[in-house]
Batch of 4 targets.
Target 1
Amino acid sequence: MSVLQESISLKPYNTFGILVNARYFAEIVNEGDLVQLLKSRLIQEQKLLVLGGGSNILFTKDFNGLVIKVAIQGIKSIEDGDNVIVTSGAGVVWNDLVQYCVQRGFGGIENLSLIPGTVGASPIQNIGAYGVELKDVFESCVAYEIATGRAKVFNYKDCRFGYRDSIFKNELKGRYIITSVSLKLSKSPDLNIQYGAIKEELANRNIASPTISDVSAVVSYIRVSKLPDPSTIGNAGSFFKNPVIGQDEFAPILKQFPGIVHYPAPNGRVKLAAGWLIEQCGFKGIVSGETGTWKNQALVLVNHGHATGQEVYSFSEQIVVAVDAKFHVGLEREVNIL
Ligand code: FAD
Ligand code: EPU
């Protein structure tokens, strides 16, 4: 049975390093614990927050309810010819799962190396990096409905994945707790090395025929050079999504700003690089009190040590206003604000 703690600091549980407290806190290490907890009166009475690694959350105030930290471990794999189904507990650190697969030659998630957080959170926003998204390898996940305590299997279609989006951020927001995720990987994968920075770094290393392990190493190297390490400077990765707009909206912006960084998106739409938009507004690497943007990546907001969540949020609002004023483009926060 999970141990219930009261009045605990959430600072070690969020990568922004924001100092807030939770009224109640319970860590669950197996499904039995979770089923028990879901039957308890506390669940009916308290506001709930399901927490993985806290790497996509900004706390703006104390959490006056019950935080359920999902810490279910364990990875297993079933091989069938070239295909492998890998099933992981939701509490496994995502990059540990990636390394488990890379070491065994199971391809498909090497481009997602070094993304912080847990496996259980990976379907929530359909994590993505360097040309690959979780949806590309997702087989299914098991999730428990909070209201009934019943387990349900969600297949690919059920999850309605989109760019940094899934059913768990929409219709089912706050209703299910994911306990395991299964991925469909391959022992002879088509490696995805189209991303400019990957090609460049492979060339620098004189690697003409990369292995899964080479791709993982190169992606990790690129990430470390661009993104701040939360163990030394608090952050939650990209604070905003890259805006996806229609051609009609895009045409006048392109005319005025011919250098705008953009990519094709599904259905003829256009994805803009939010980091570029923010940099053009003069925000790259600026320090504002205890917060600011990262010197190598304007899309990442940071905590210089003692920022409050309110301070970070207000600063993000200044960015939204500036980008809207200059480009008439609305930025949507990627980070979950609490
Ligand atoms: P948390 O922050 O704990 O939770 C995130 C959301 O998921 C919350 O709404 C929470 O309630 C919910 N949740 C968590 N676990 C469960 C569960 N088991 N069941 C149900 N709901 C749950 N993301 C990318 O997509 N690509 C990147 O390249 C990337 N780079 C990053 C770089 C840095 C330096 C940092 C700090 C973050 C980055 N992120 C990136 C964001 C983050 O790593 C991902 O969103 C990650 O999946 C969050 O995992 P977590 O366990 O920390 O989730
Ligand atoms: N750029 C700038 N200035 C900046 C930052 C970026 O001009 O300060 C321009 C550059 O031209 C660069 C382009 O924007 O070529 C794209 O930048 P980058 O390759 O760093 O990627 P991104 O679009 O900023 C996205 C994801 C990241 C993911 C990377 C790599 C979102 C919101 N972010 O960032 O995910 O790691 O691509 O695939 O989609 C996260 O979600 O937390 C995250 C870090």
Note: The chain is about 25% helix and 30% strand.
Target 2
Amino acid sequence: MKAKTYKPTLRNLRYLAAELRKGELVAIPTETVYGLAANALDSSACRKIFKAKQRPRNDPLIVHVLGLEQAEQLADFNPAARKVAKKFWPGPLTLVLPRKACIPRIVTSGGDTVAIRAPLHEVARKLLKIARVPLAAPSANSFSYISPTEAAHVTDGLGARIRHVIDGGPCVLGVESTILDLTDPNNPRVLRPGSIGVSALQKVLGNEVRETSGAKSQRARQVAPGMLAKHYSPRTPLRLTNAINTRVKEDTGIIVLRRPRSLAAPNIFWLSERGSLEEIARNLYRVLRHADKSGFKEIVVEKLLAEGELAGAINDRLKRAAAKR
Ligand code: TXA
Ligand code: MG
């Protein structure tokens, strides 16, 4: 198998929607990261996702829909869930809710809840409209590797194992969606931080939102199994540091947050021009992948000291990337 990359023309999207309905996999752009999509109502199609990604079966998939109406056919919405969906969809917010019977077991890893989101990316939305089925789609990378934010990243990692990749350009946000568990609307919990932060959610929900993404409890492990493993990681050992020393050895890749003022050496990479968090998020995975491919013994990344929602999401990814296997 060798992946073919398609431009998102109407003709191509019609063909690929038909492929999805036939049970094929298609890698799709979203505003967060690229996803590896299958018809969420077709368990044998969803099984192919786990195989292509080499993803353990106990790590459930996110189901992508056009909006609330379609989502309500797949999960039991409570008023709180409707409220946040109306506010943040389409967009980078995934809701965990009790599943309905039409969702195959493989999608939820046998659990009673399903994760759902409505992506904002125009190409993903067009495809959802034409295919007229919900799409299960985890990030389109090999399990535990860095998520893809460009079509070429998908081909690089999964090109030998899938047939179709849609090139929708680089992802605008660059970090995965915020996952909010609203199974119990009185106890909303963020399982994975993203660009939609706790305070924005609290404002809409009107009650306290807890963040449990770092939790090591047994319960947390059951709730989001994929969240505790080493994740988003390059193959080269990665270390976070407060004090970047740009004069270190050439066999070390150095990633700094903002463009250095003086001319940089070939082992120095930067994530943004002026330190904007949006830009850091957008460039993070591309730069990590690039540094990972450059043959360094180690990659050292400058710690992000900023506080706040998006900073929290970026730090979460960096910590996981640095975690020992
Ligand atoms: O931005 C995103 O969310 C991207 C794009 C493609 O939409 N998708 C993505 O999917 O990041 P993935 O599979 O790489 O991460 C999904 C996470 C996993 O850690 C999984 O454990 C968790 O969502 N998850 C899925 N279903 C769940 C459920 N029912 N309860 C709790 N966590 C769940
Ligand atoms: Mg992933």
Note: The domain at 4-211 is CATH 3.90.870.10 (DHBP synthase).
Target 3
Amino acid sequence: MSVRSITVLGSTGSIGLSTLDLLDQAGAEVEVLALTAGRNVERLAEQALRWRPRVAVIEDESLLPELRERLNGSNIGAAGGPSAIEEAGALGADWVMSAIVGSAGLAPTLAAARVGSTIALANKESLICAGPALLAAAKAAGGGVIPVDSEHSAIFQVLQPDAPERVLRLILTASGGPFRTWSRDEMARATPEQAVAHPNWSMGAKISVDSAQMMNKGLEMIEAAYLFSMPPNRIDVLIHPQSVVHSLVEYTDGSTLAQLGPPDMRTPIACAWSWPQRISWPAPKLDLAAIGKLTFEAPDEIRFPALAIARQALSAGGGAPAAMNAANEIGVAAFLDRKIGFLDIAAIVSDTLEALDRAGDLAAEEDADPLEWAMTIDAGARRAAAQVLSRFAIKG
Ligand code: NAD
Ligand code: MG
């Protein structure tokens, strides 16, 4: 592969680190245009000195002087604030890793789509907020979106693109998270430490909590519906505690195709880097004989209501998925801050959606700019969720 220009949005997080590590281990020849972070200025500066991007961008502007100081004398540009992150997305890199967490990833990802970069998409929240607009923008500008989320990478690899009518179902696997066998009473008392202790994957705090409440799989159902143009009733979830089978596609002739691998995000990132080729790197190998047994079970939507909430939001359409995502971000942050209990997150999401729906705030707006509209829904849902949250907050 020739030298490619790249930008990593969210380079200091779990996916960002895996991305740079993979490129390092694969000996990829890259020219880095931008690296961006939220608040981790120390790690961003360290990465910048190693990867020599044109610009390093920190979202929290109060940290820009420190970033400048750390990069002093290096010739690497430094910038700060959300608009500088959006500009980093718009630099026109050949390949952009979208790995910011939350709906904050939407603006820079959409900017990258609009200039025709190939987008390796980890930031699922941007698809939930504005999936159809994001995919249409990428297509119109001649770039593409390659999923990095392991389930969607699996489906992307085994889906025969030209024959949607021959696909019966997409089956998303889910580990079941750390609370797979817990009762509702036990989950009501769960701490942030217990919720982020995922049995198979090492990930950022927000997605770990989402996995524990199965909202991650709810978000992934919506992600799959948009990415693969599938109606909600043809996307199923299957619990698979070992996280070896990453997802499956069931065809009309009785064949079901799956993709397997060790639970290591560098493999789906490698796929998004080289597709339709494959690169070599010292990847951990799958040893099925050592694993011995793979098990599967149906999900329990009573103990994990987030799945049904997400399915309903997807079916309702309009602003419901974006609002669900925003309310969930508020709920997860409050839980991580120990302001509410674990089960309150889904309750807050559900109550917020009901309130917004009653007020008629979730209907689609035909002529709106998709980014502005998604951000309006996002902001409105954050306000509504903050109000609902005050009813749940632990007094103390
Ligand atoms: P993380 O919390 O480890 O990292 C998030 C990155 O975004 C960091 O670089 C952080 O500094 C930056 N950031 C945070 N808030 C920001 C803001 N407001 N503006 C700009 N930058 C900001 O998260 P992660 O686990 O790497 O996940 C990143 C995305 O990838 C999420 O959308 C997640 O759902 C998705 N994803 C992650 C995994 C995984 O294994 N970690 C798997 C599949 C999908
Ligand atoms: Mg996933």
Note: The chain has 17 helices and eleven strands.
Target 4
Amino acid sequence: MSQANIKQDINSIGWQFDNSYIHLPESFYVQISPVSVRAPQVAILNFALAESLGLDVASLSEETAALLFAGNNLPDAAHPIAQAYAGHQFGNFTMLGDGRAILLGEHLTPTGERFDIQLKGSGQTPFSRQGDGRAALAPMLREYIISEAMHALKIPTTRSLAVVTTGESVTRETMLPGAILARVAASHVRVGTFEYAAKTGDVSAIKTLADYMIQRHYPALKQADNPYLELLNSVMERQASLVAKWLLVGFIHGVMNTDNMTISGETIDYGPCAFMDDYDPNTVFSSIDYHGRYCYHNQSHAAQWNLARFAETLLPLLHPTQERAITLAEKTINLFPDLFQDYWLMGMRNKLGLFTKETEDINLAKMLLTWMQKNHADYTNSFRALAAEDFPEGDLFRNKEFIEWHTRWQARLSRQENSKQSSFSLMQANNPALIPRNHQVEKALTAASEQGDYAPMQQLLMALSNPFDDITEHNNYRTPPSPQEGIYQTYCGT
Ligand code: AMP
Ligand code: MG
């Protein structure tokens, strides 16, 4: 096909670019295009997501789709940039920025929703530092699987539109096939973007960014007496809700650095993340998280710590006198633990089929978790097993402590007017049957990236798109790993 035809095809799939980020001061980004790759090929396309965005990706030939999502041929209305940001990584401040990603622009869906379209693994930028600007295939497919699974689990997240292989190798510990992920996000502005603005020492830069984020994600706050304090409150609210949702499905992000926390409240940057099998609050997956800073149960503390860094950047906007600004920020951030617990408890009540509130509910939930931890019970399967009329099957549950807990829970259910059936329906809608279990994900990734066999990944994705239903054919995905299959670390961060 001629270059002109390729361009015409790419332009005609329904792009509605309306790029607003480029109107921020120039210090916020660098204009730069993706570095073309040698031989792009489609690994996977998300037709359903494309359709919901109003993009007719299905009309493109595979070759053209590969050229598009590799960044070799861009739509005319794209305005490619690399975003500047900073961040606290494991507690240490660093200047960062898109070292291997290019934002093509903001696309408006047919219903007027605005989404960033970004290519990750698209070559070096001025922010690449020592990095090659590239990504390996398995980690990009991993982000695809986990982000799409999170979406199906009703957890706010960036999404994955496509993965293409580049026909080039990347050098990590070994040579690996290179790939690019097309990522869709409400926006890519992070706590670290505010830290970057604050680091410039220019208060007007912080104000511009804050106003931009209010306009884009929290427009109702424009009318508030103190919009910036309300911005802090609102971001905190969304993060408390988000991290509670993570815990409720057993998700561990793995790298909760401030550059990996969005202002929109979406989960972002799936590196060494994973879902827990056996319940253990100390679970860590990341091989670089030596001290368990981001382990399962520390995630709410990490979120609060990150939000405190966010609050610091907003101080000059919160109040003209610094002392008063600090008091306001501290007061707000100190509300986080209760806010988080409220969201978590609300989710736990749903998981336990409770429609009403009793003060003892929190202990009822915690007793169950303590029992799970002591008995190495599978977190997902144990909750799912409760959502039925009959006493759960299996030796695990023929245990004095569990039987006592079950009696107490049954008594609690009886104290509400709702039928048992309605409790079970509530539980089935809140206790997934399926999560992306690490041993299954790794198997699918090995088949795809080492044998070029995408069938296991396609089957896994299909199953994960429907996590709350009991579907017999998907039962194999519900089995926890055998001791040999248990994978405790993921090295997929880069
Ligand atoms: P991450 O660990 O993916 O959140 O990335 C942290 C920072 O490292 C970001 O600024 C990335 O753009 C940058 N980075 C990660 N991998 C690479 C790479 N291969 N080449 C250049 N920059 C990278
Ligand atoms: Mg990151």
Note: The chain is about 40% helix and 15% strand.
